[in-house]
Amino acid sequence: MPLTMSQISDPKIAFAYLRPNCVLLTREPSVSNVKTLGSQLKEVNDATLQQLQEYVLFPLRFVLKVPGPKKDKLVQAVAETMSHILENTCVQSWDTLHGLFSELCLCLCSPTDPGKPADTSEELKLAVLQCLDALLHAAYGDIVFKLFEPIMLPGLGAAVSLLLALGEKEKSRDIQAAALKCLQALTLQCDCTQEHVVPSSEEQHAIGSAMASFLPGISMAVTRIITGDLRQGHAVTVRAIKFWSSAVRLVLEDVQLQASQPLKTPSSDLGRIAQLMVPRTQDWVKSTVGKLSVLLKKIISCTSAHRHWRVRLELVELADHLLARCSHSLGECVGLLLEALVGAVNDEEPRVRERCEVSLRDVSQRNQSSLNSSSGDMTSSTHTFTDVLSENLHSLATSLPRLMRTSDDQKKLFVLNVFLGYLKVLGPLVCVVLNSAAHLERISKALMQVLELDVMDVSIVEERSHSSSIETSSSAPDYYTAHIQRKHFLYFTDEKILSVLMEICRTLGFYGNIYLLTDHFLDLYRQSSSYRKQAAMVLNEIVRGAAGIGVATESQGLRGEGDGCSATLKEDLEAAVVSVVEEYISLNNWHLITVSEETDRDRQDQQLLSPPRLLSISNNDISKINVNSLQVIPSSFGSSSPSSSTPTVHQLNSNIWQLCIQLEGIGCFSQALGRDFRPLLMTSLYPVLEKAGEETLLVSQAALGSMWDISKACGYPSLKELINENSDYLLSDISLNLQRLNQHPQAPRVLTVMLTHSDCSLLPLVGDIVQDVLMALDLSYDHTAALFCSVLHALMRALARWFPSSCTRTNESATSKQTSTDQEVLDIRQFLLDYCKQRKLAEGIGIEEDNTEDLEVPPPVECEDSGDMEAPDVKAELPSHLRISKDVMERCIHLLSDPSLRLRLKVLDVLELCVCVLSEKGDELLPMAHRCWPALLQRLTADDPLAVLRAFRMLCTLGETCGDFLRRRVSKEVLPRLSSSLIRQAPISAKAGPIYLHTVAYKLQLAVLQGLGSLCQRLDLGEADLDAVCEACLPYLSCRQPSPLQEACLSVFRHLIQVDADTFWFTLNELHCPFSYTPPHPDLQPVQLSGMDRPRDEYSDNVLKLLREEFDSVSVTVDQKIS
Amino acid sequence: MSRPAPSPIYTLRGAGGPLNTLHFSCLAGDTPLLFSGSGHGVVHIWNLNSRRAERNLEGHSGSSVIWVNTLQSTGALLSQGRDMQVCQWDLREGRSEVVDSVWTGSVGFCQCSLLETSSGSSLLAFAGQQTEEIKIIELPSKKPVCTLVPDAKVGMVMCIKLWQPDSGPGPLLLAGYEDGSLLLWDVTQRCKLSEVKAHPEPVMCLTFDTKRLRGISASCEKKLSSWILDGQNNLQLQDLSVTLVNPGVSQLCVREDGKLLASAGWDHRVRVFGWKKLRPLAVLQYHSDMVLSVAFSDHQDPRQRLLAAGSKDQRISLWSIYSEGANSS
């Protein structure tokens, strides 16, 4: 700085330079003179100033000392100038310090009442405060402590109360802050960047003793500042908190109080001053702490949720500071401080969180180290610390349910965070705390009450139906976790609260004795049904926590020797898990009713009648079935069920949740044990799969989620591997339970789930079980047919998925045939062979020879020989999926005439799938088709419209695969009825309103029209039949018909046109002809079509559309070919 | 007693063939194992903890395995196949190799009988090449001890049981023959001690309780006949006999504690009787084909004891029956 260069460094010159002004000022105190002096002083360097300090200060002090009222401006100027001097010099003499100190204090207080601040300008106060601050900083170490001698108590007290008053009452934040800073400086606790005197322990003691007298006043006043106006800004509050904590620390520091000090009797010459002194005796400390705790409570409640993070940080600092230095003497406050500390563990501001974690770690380490060091003789201090913590925990657990009921979410979160914090601070001591029955009881009861689920929500029981169709189509593992239904709790809604609660449980499991905990909570689980769900939730998390999952990592360090005993821990955990799983899947807790019988049946009906899936099958779009393959779970279908008898709904809801929680639990356990969970699959996988097949969406979803968890934990890449590799366990149980169906009606369901989630590699494994199923079905058609039908359906659906057969292939080949005629030439040989085969078959001969012929390769002779050895009279074994399909189809033929409509519909579905699978092998399919034809015909002609609808789909599928095998039968037995019914219905549908679209009759019409075209084409029907079809369909070209029917009818014609374009061109033109055709040569007869010149009528639109689409395009392509 | 019949506690699947024979090895400390011999010549070693086949031993070139047993002293496994071989397997430390084999020459179904005499050596009795012949050799030296051929025409040897009586110098052997007669042989004297005509049809199986000197045998008819051995080593038929609902028993087995008798029925059922009075106790129904073998486990703890049944339907079912009361004895 250039200025310093020019500063006067010679004391003599400086003296000469300053003297005139000093003299002038003494004579004539004015603002200008003071300012002149001030500016001159700036030109003197620090060392010189130090030498001249007393001299320069004199006129200034003289100004202040002059009796009588002074102008504010003057005093302010003086104070500023003095500040400058003091900031740059040291005060070495006690007299100067004392004198200045009291003079400055006098400037601040009102002349009439020395205890109150003067009514002067704010600038003045600020200047004086800064000056005072500078003075205290400038004081030499050896003299500053004289301030704290007993003799100084009155003066000090006056200053303190004055500053407190300033800090509290002033409106200006700066003054408040400056006053507080002064107080800090006065107690040698200043936190500014300047150098400070470091007091020795004796000096500390002296300060402490002196401040003890003022502690009540200080603590109360500062508390008022802290809890005062929120608008005062965080700076003041932060400083106030800081001062509070340092003041308390000064007086109540453990080191001071423990140091055995000779109780100095106040010397008699002090007189009345001796009364001011406070001996810091045990009793005094006790009563003071009692009062402090009240204040502390106020401070904490006011600042723990302060909006500014610095304030919260300061509170953490305070707690940390006091816990570190005064934890013994503060006694009952320790609990409060800890609470404040742990409450900030989950602060939203990371800096606060970090600080808090550090200090918590310190606390718990201090705690543990003192515990370790004093393992022989437990010092009372550690005892009390643990006691305080556990007591706090206890009281918090006691009040937890009440708090959870009454306070708002914010407060609840805070309380729970505190709870969690206690557990973390206790660390391994949790184990000790939990050993006390009272504690365990209290904590568990609190958790039970807090975690109470809200089962009043009726929607859970209904909800499954809405989203089902979308949700089951996805198989991604994360999907299940994403869509898990949120639990509704009675006492809170915030998800964060749940996660804190879960973490509490995990922490309990992490530190606690796993045997004790599982035992206790299992007891609760068994004890009362009202606790069951909560206890299960807690158990799940405890086990996870015990395995170290989801426990905050920072506490890992505290575990210390945990690694050494991990083997035994693992064993303990395994044993605990085994017992819990056993309890979960025990009959009473697992086989809960989740669906009321009535709604179930209704829903099944609905499901069977739901149209969308019919269409997908009628389109023979196997790929579509593949996509929806997960829908096999019967539960996932159906539309909203009418609400059932209300009293049970809550029970159902509760049951559903209990199952979900238990399923989640099994997932958790697998996570906890990892691969060690594999042996448990023996018992637990079957029940989980059983639930995966449950009707209730929520339960089945939870089960699927659990399955994913298990497969991940046990190291299986997907559900498929999980099921395949453990199929022996599953099948063993299934086969057992199939024999006792009345006790275990879920067995088929498990098989269904297995089939749904696995692939064809499972087939060899389930082969014999399928035989079991069929046998069980054979044994009791009456009672179990409906149950088994769903298994058969699942089975066939799985087979159709695993062996995507010719259903799609024929489709493709059919289309390719239509487009290219070249290929047809090549196919003639095959055609003739096929024809020959069909003929033979129709005559009923040589099925077996056919078989070998079909292979196209002459069968090797030696192969036959080896076959002879084992079974001479058996033909080559069918692939198992075909054999199964055949077996199933056989049963279905029987069931096709079951009295129950629902069953018949289901059976038709199964049959259709059988046909799809068997279509691969015509030799097997055709005899079966033949056998099932009579029954199918019955369905088609003389059954409920619903069955007719389904049967027609079946017929279409059969037509796709069997082709001309059906031609005669269809044309003779089916077509007449269908066409007559179409004709009969046409006028009705033409006239009907929109409501008609919801009737069965309409659906039947639509289905027939949609399928008829392709059926005709596939079966290659004769002309007469086509005419009949055409005649039946023509009315539906009318624009008066509902548009889906028109569309369907158009499709019929499109197919028909492909079969015989000319005929139908003519037919259509007969109906309506837009053009007049002029013959190319006048000799030729003019073309006369009855549709010509007809006025536009109801048919014209659709006819034109067809003509345009089908024939224009054809003519264009023909033209192109020619050219 | 109208309690519902129990169901198996679990089943073992995947043998891939009819299960002709079963043998438990559940000594304390080790993993409990069950050996099974299948119709396709494979010996499966089932781990009863994981309920899965641990190892498969194929040493009979696909011929049906009709008998398996273990040598307590060495832990070796013996398996008899219809390829006329008795193989000795070394299974220690995960090995599974044939260390020795004996050619029997028998084409019948007669299972061997093993008697461990002293540590290290044992006697093995098996049906010989001639139809009525029984050979006894010493293991591991394979030294022939004797050959027993009855004087009378009794037909093929069907089943044998070799044991060492408490009193008396040498081991005795019981044999059931094709004509339904039972013969008691003294092995050291090489002479027939007693004979009784137990069945009109061939003796399919027999079991003998060496403590109570009482045995029972079955044929392809409905009757089980029990007999005792009196002090003079005379076989005497007892009045106590059982008539089954359906004929045919493949195997009989008495539990070690002498309380239960189990029969493997051709009617797909396992029947359990009280051994003392042959009171029918339970009909165990699970299998869908002939039950070919039954065995009681040799668990140290009676409560863990199991009954295993192997069937032609390629499954083994394991049952825990009347095991809670066993600890009273």
User: Under the CATH scheme, which class of the domain at 107-243 in chain B?
Assistant: Mainly Beta
Q: What do we call the CATH topology of the domain at 107-243 in chain B?
A: Methylamine Dehydrogenase, Chain H
What is the approximate shape of chain A?
A: elongated
Instruction: Please mark out the parts of chain A with pLDDT under 50 across 5 or more consecutive residues, or reply none.
Output: 374-379, 464-482, 554-565, 598-647, 807-824, 847-872, 1113-1123
Q: Give the C-alpha Rg of chain A.
A: 47 Å
Give the helix level of chain A as a range of percent. over 70%
Main structural class of chain B: mainly beta
Number of strands of chain A: 0
CATH H level of the domain at 107-243 in chain B: which superfamily?
YVTN repeat-like/Quinoprotein amine dehydrogenase
Number of helices of chain B: 0
Q: Structural class of the secondary structure composition of chain A? A: mainly alpha
C-alpha Rg of chain B, in Å? 19 Å
- Chain-averaged pLDDT of chain B: 88
Strand-residue fraction of chain B? Answer: over 45%
For the largest beta-sheet of chain B, the strand count, sense and barrel status come to:
4 strands, antiparallel
Unreliable spans of chain B = none
Provide mean pLDDT of chain A, rounded: 75
